[in-house]
Amino acid sequence: MSSKVLYFRGTPLTTLWNPKIQHKLLQFRRLSSKTTNCCSLQPPNVSHLAKTAHISLTPTEVEEFGPKIQQVIGWFGQLQGVDLQSIEPSIRADTENNLRDNTPETFDQRDAIIASVPSYEEPYIKVPKVLNVD
Q1: Which reaction does it catalyse (predicted)?
Q2: Is the peptide bond before 123 cis (omega within 30 degrees of 0)?
């Protein structure tokens, strides 16, 4: 696991799990469900986006996706307005290297497994054919 920290607008993403931040995000969600067109960006050209993404859309789909894409852009505009400077970063426990020791162990029950196998040819265990490839 890497020790790098992801940042959102200069704030570590671990800060977003702080209860104070969660409260603000809940308030933001309530606000965003009421207002969707808060950003200053122009409406997207869905036909151009579809062509760039190499997908084909019917004119009905173009009309349907335009407002939805604008709504998502509006949500990002609202995210930019959230004040994170007054929130103190939360502290998380270090979770690196929480793995068990990888020590080799000898397997003592080899003879018991070989005795229970229906078909065995030294050193292979024969199993029924799985794939129908000839």
Answers
A1: L-glutamyl-tRNA(Gln) + L-glutamine + ATP + H2O = L-glutaminyl-tRNA(Gln) + L-glutamate + ADP + phosphate + H(+)
A2: yes
Report CA-CA distances (Å) from 14 to 3, 24, 79, 84, 97.
13, 15, 16, 12, 19
In angstroms, the CA 91 to CA 97 distance is 18
Global pTM? 0.35
| Domain boundary assignment for the chain | 1-82
SS3 9: coil
Structure tokens at 78: 């609202």
41 in Cβ contact with 77 (< 8 Å): yes
**Residue 57, Cβ density class (10 Å: 0-12 exposed, 13-18 middle, ≥19 buried):** middle
Residues 95-134 have pLDDT tens digits of 677 788 889 988 888 888 888 988 888 888 888 888 877 6
